[in-house]
Amino acid sequence: MPSSTNPLIVQGDKSLLLEVQNERYEAARDALARFAELEKSPEYIHTYRITPLSLWNAASAGLSAAEIIVLLEEFSKYGLPSNVARDIDEYVGRYGRVKLVREGDNLILISADTTLMVEILNQKTTARFIRAQLDEHRALVDPGRRGHLKQALLQIGYPAEDLAGYVVGEDLPITLRPVTRSGEPFQLRHYQEDAAEVFHAGGTMQGGSGVIVLPCGAGKTIVGMVAMAQLQTSTLILTPHTVAVRQWMSELVDKTSLTEDVVGEYSGLQKDIRPVTVSTYQILTYRKRSSDEFPHFGLFSARNWGLIIYDEVHLLPAPVFRITAEIQARRRLGLTATLVREDGLEGDVFSLIGPQKYNVPWKDLEKQGWIATAICHEIRAPLDESLRMEYALAPQRQKYSIAAHNPRKLPILQAILKRHAGESILVIGMYLDQLETIAKQLETPLITGATPVREREKLYAGLRSGEIQTLVVSKVANFSIDLPDASVAIEISGTFGSRQEEAQRLGRILRPKSSGVMAHFYSIVTRETVDQTFAANRQRFLTEQGYKYEILYENELL
Q1: Which of 74, 176, 280, 368 is most exposed, with minimal Cβ within 10 Å?
Q2: pLDDT at residue 479, rounded to an integer
C-alpha cells in the first residue's frame, strides 16, 4: 500500500518517478520493467512512462490490469491518480478485443463488441483488408493481408490477438545433443527452457509468434534451437551479417542432430537453400536500384518453412517488415537483447513478429552467474581551446564528429589498455578514420565492413585463442559475435544516442569468463558537448537493467 518510505511517485500523465537511493529501488525497477518504458535515468530519479504498447506487451504476457495496479500501489508513496488506474484498465482491456481465427479455409476477424466491429469495417485503414462482413460479430479477411490488418488495428488502438494458427511446414527431425560434437556436456539453462516453452505454448494457437528478450551472452541462439526441436520443421534463420550466419551454422551442427548437408548458407558469398537455411538481412534487402523489386525475397517461399527466426529482431529493416506482413501463416520467433528501436517501429515488431513473450532482467542473470558481472565507466575528456572554438562555430550536424574525434581521447584509451594489460580487449568506434589511426598507433588489427568475412573470422578466432589481445572494430562487431573471453570493451565513438548500440556493445563482453575476471565497459566522451548528451541517452536502457556508470574525468584516470 502507498507509504512515504516507498520509492515511486505515479503522476497523472502516466509518468513514473523512481528514487534510486531507496532500499526498494531494485524491486520496483524490476516490477516496472514488466509494463513501463524507461525515459530518463540521471543519478537520483529515473523517469518511466506507461504507454499503450507497454501495456499491450504486458497483457500479451498474461499480466492483468489489476496486477499492474497492485504493483504500482505496492511501491507508490501516494495513492494512484484515478485516471491512471482507469487508463491501465482500459488499454489492457483493449488487447484481444478483436481476434483473428481460422474457420475452415477462411480467415475470420471476430469481436463480441458489435460497435467496435462497425468502427473497424468503416475505418479506411482497416476496411481495405476485409473482404466481407459475415454478421455483426464476424468479418472475412483477405488471408494475404493478415499482417497488414494487424498493423492497422494496432494503429487505431485495438491490437488483435492472432489465433488463426500456422502452416505445419516441411518435416525436419531435430534433437538437441546431451554432449556437443566438440565433446562438451550440453545442458539447457532453466530460463532458456522457460523462454522456448512460452513461445511454443504446447503447440497451441496462443504460441508460435513472439519475441524473446535475453541479454547478450545469455544464449538466445540456444532458445532458437529449442524452438526448432519443439516444432520439428524446416526453418529459415535471418541474421545481421555473414559472420553471424557462420556462427549459427556452427552452433546448429555442434549442438543438434543436424548435419552439415542439412544446413545451408544464403548470403552475398553463397546461396545454398537447405532444410535449415541461414541468411542475412543485408542480402534480403539488396537491389540494384531503389525502384527495383527485392530479388532475394523469393527465399521466403523457396521452401515450406514451418518457422522463421529473426535474430537481433530490433535490427529488422523496413523491407523485411513488408514481406513479414505477407507470411503471417509461418511461425515467427524474434530474438533480441533489447526491443528498443531508434526508428520507433516497436509497434511493427509487436504486430508482425509478435508480442514480447519472455524477458529476464540482465542483473538477475548476472546474480545467477549466467552472464559476467560488468562494471560500466564513463570517462570525460575536455576539448582543447582551439577545438572548443571550432566546435562552437560548427554547424549542428558537424558538432558530434568534432567531439567524437577529440584527440584527448587517445591518451585515455592508452591508460585503460595499460590498466587491463593481459586481458582480451575490444576497442569499438563509429568513424573509420579514427579507428584506422588508433589501430596504427596501437599496432593492432582492425575490422570494418570492408574486411572480408574469412579475415574477420580469423581475427575473432585469434582473440578467442589469446593469440590477439586487442582488436579495433567498427560497428560491424556490435551484433552476434561470440567472443567468450573478451573482458574489456572501450567505446571511443558511437552512433549518436543509440540505446540499442550501447546495450549490444556491452553485450560483447558479458559471457562468463573462464578466468573468472569481471567485465569492464568504458565509454570515452567529450565533456560539455553533444558527445556527452548522446552518451546520457545511450545509457538509458542499460540503466533500466540495473547498470550504473562510474563517471571519471580525464585527470582522475590519468
Answers
A1: 368
A2: 66
